[in-house]
């Protein structure tokens, strides 16, 4: 694994989060950064798969109007047997939503660990983003992620 590969992986994940945080539509994300077989969800829980799953995932998280994901650590990318690349990240997140009828927004914060699967051909794209675990969740985030078998508790 070269420094160029690590930089490309980091850049790809950052571009994914930039689109996610901008609330890009599924078609834009598929065109810009995701593979057609993209999947996301919880390693031992609910998965959203393919274009329809992506649309469901984006709809589930559409309640958030402000968000940030900051990567703090990236494991060295490794090439998998199928030619794709895999790595893990540790990141902090901040999400904000305005509950219906409320004058105040709710904040969701914590740390998350993800396993990533990336495709480098013809350009770098995300094939999977899977949540491995959490730490330091505030009360709102603890509720949001309380049922990984079912998805997000929005």
What does this structure look like?
There is one protein chain. This protein is α+β, with helices and mostly antiparallel strands and 154 residues long. 28% of the residues lie in helices and 41% in strands. The chain is globular. It starts with a helix and ends in a 10-residue tail after the last helix.
Termini, distance in Å?
A: 39 Å
Series of H and E elements: HHEEHEEEEEH
Tell me the structural class: alpha+beta
Radius of gyration: 15 Å
Determine the mean pLDDT. Answer: 95
Tally the beta strands.
7
The rough form would be described as globular
Query: How much strand?
Result: 35-45%
Largest β-sheet summary: 7 strands, mixed
Low-confidence segments: none
Level of helix content?
25-40%
Can you count the helices? Answer: 4
What's the layout of helices and strands?
Layout: H1 3-21, H2 26-32, E1 34-42, E2 47-49, H3 50-60, E3 64-74, E4 78-79, E5 85-97, E6 106-119, E7 125-135, H4 139-144
Parallel strand pairs: 1-7
Antiparallel strand pairs: 1-2, 3-5, 4-5, 5-6, 6-7
Condensed summary:
The protein has four helices and seven strands, in the order ααββαβββββα. The chain has 154 residues and is α+β, with helices and mostly antiparallel strands. Strands 1, 2, 3, 4, 5, 6 and 7 form a seven-stranded mixed β-sheet that branches.
Keywords:
single chain, 154 residues, alpha+beta, seven-stranded mixed sheet
